[in-house]
Specification:
heterodimer; A: 69 residues; alpha/beta; two-stranded antiparallel ribbon; B: 345 residues; alpha+beta; five-stranded mixed beta sheet; three-stranded antiparallel beta sheet; 9 helices; 8 strands; 67% helix; 12% strand
């Protein structure tokens, strides 16, 4: 399963990643993205993930901007 | 409503009025009568005015325990009773005047009777007028005092509310970060906790003081900064360029530095590639807090309320304004440093 975490606070993202790994039995592939810019670049080249966890207020804007772009 | 009357001031005015009128009266009758009569009459005039004056104050004191001082009923009963009392007083004084003037007692001397009743009315009118001016003055003083007290209380309350607003929101966020932190890095979590404890302790102490030394303010800022840096890493930096001497010798209103950093964090975008840099410098008696401007497109809720509050508190405590400058690249706030001897310590 492919999971994307969009969160600007690294610690919170790490904690979420750890919890997901604990709770999901199958092998998961997790990617952390820290800003709108980084996320836009990532989604342009990557496959569509199965699940996205996203913070709304990021360091350089709102996460909704990623999906508009 | 009891005790609201400025009795002492009213009585003082009564005496003043009686003395002035007696002196005038003395010079008016000086030529017409024998010396002995002049003294008696002058004394009796004074006595009349003083009696009427005290009666007015007495009646007002009694009425004040039943009605509010500025009510219609109070005014009505006051006029009614004082005029009756003053006429009564002058009628009682009449025989004394007659005796003092060695005149023959004829009660039905209508013109003299009317003259005494008239005097009672005139004197009482004068007394009421004078006393009213004192009451009005007192009322004005009191309302002004109340207004200024209200203003201060309002500012204090606002101050307190804002100070306390920091706590729950801040505590909630910090605990969340801490929860995430302690699985991964117990050492950092430890550091985080220490800063958080320091920050909270300082905020408790600061809550009771209105002015703190620059040193304490910077300490508070550093604790807050350390916590935010654990969350945001290199995306956030803050440099304090202040000498030890400055730190020791100057003061600021409590909680003025940390909210400025908090504001900068709240209103700006920052990532590792485009970090937020906050600088704190001294320029003479001014402290300048500046940061690079990378404004968020979405306006944060309650924008600039904290800054307005700081400006208001600053005006209250030092009488100075704070200077806010903003251009394309930077945002800066200048606040005047207070010398330590002006502080509450």
């Amino acid at each position: 399963m492919n999971i994307v975490i969009i969160e600007d606070e690294g610690i919170v993202a790490d904690d979420l990643e750890m919890n997901i790994r604990k709770l999901v039995d199958e092998p998961v592939d997790i990617v952390q993205l820290k800003s709108v810019k980084e996320a836009i670049v990532y989604f342009k080249q990557a496959n569509t993930p199965d699940l996205i966890f996203s913070d709304i207020q990021l360091g350089d804007g709102l996460s909704f901007e990623i999906f508009v772009g | 409503m009891k005790g609201m009357l400025p009795t002492r001031r009213l009585n003082r005015l009564t005496w003043l009025l009686s003395i002035i009128i007696s002196i005038i009266f003395y010079f008016v009758i000086l030529d017409n009568d024998s010396e002995k009569h002049v003294y008696y009459f002058t004394f009796l005039t004074m006595l009349g005015i003083v009696l009427v004056g005290y009666t007015d104050v007495g009646i007002m004191t009694i009425l004040a325990s039943w009605f509010p001082v500025r009510s219609k009923k109070f005014t009505l009963y006051r006029s009614l009773f004082t005029y009756a009392a003053s006429i009564f007083i002058y009628l009682l004084l009449r025989p004394v005047f007659i005796w003092a003037g060695d005149k023959l007692w004829v009660f039905w001397d209508i013109s003299l009777l009317l003259a005494f009743i008239g005097s009672g009315i005139v004197v009482n009118s004068m007394i009421i007028l004078m006393h009213d001016s004192v009451l009005l003055y007192e009322h004005k003083l009191q309302s002004e005092l109340e207004l200024s007290k209200l203003k201060t209380a309002n500012a204090e309350a606002m101050n307190l509310v804002l100070k306390q607003q920091i706590q729950p929101h801040f505590l909630f966020n910090s605990l969340n970060t801490l929860k995430a932190l302690y699985h991964k890095d117990a050492q950092t979590a430890d550091t985080y906790l220490v800063h958080m404890a320091d920050f909270l302790r300082a905020s408790i102490f600061h809550n009771s003081a209105n002015i703190s030394t620059l040193e304490d303010e910077v300490k508070l800022l550093s604790d807050y900064l350390a916590m935010q840096r654990i969350s945001f890493g290199t995306a956030l930096s803050c440099t304090v360029n202040l000498s030890d001497e400055t730190l020791k010798n100057f003061s600021l209103p409590s909680f003025s530095l940390q909210p400025l950093l908090e504001n900068a964090i709240k209103h700006n975008n920052f990532t590792q590639e485009e970090p937020l840099n906050v600088n704190i410098n001294q320029d003479g008696y001014w402290l300048i807090i500046s940061n690079n401007l990378q404004k968020k497109k979405t306006k944060a809720a309650s924008a600039n309320y904290g800054l307005a509050n700081l400006a208001e508190r600053y005006r209250l405590w030092s009488g100075d304004e704070i200077i806010i400058k903003e251009d394309e690249e930077t945002f800066s706030v200048s606040i005047k440093l207070l010398k330590n001897e002006h502080s509450n310590y």
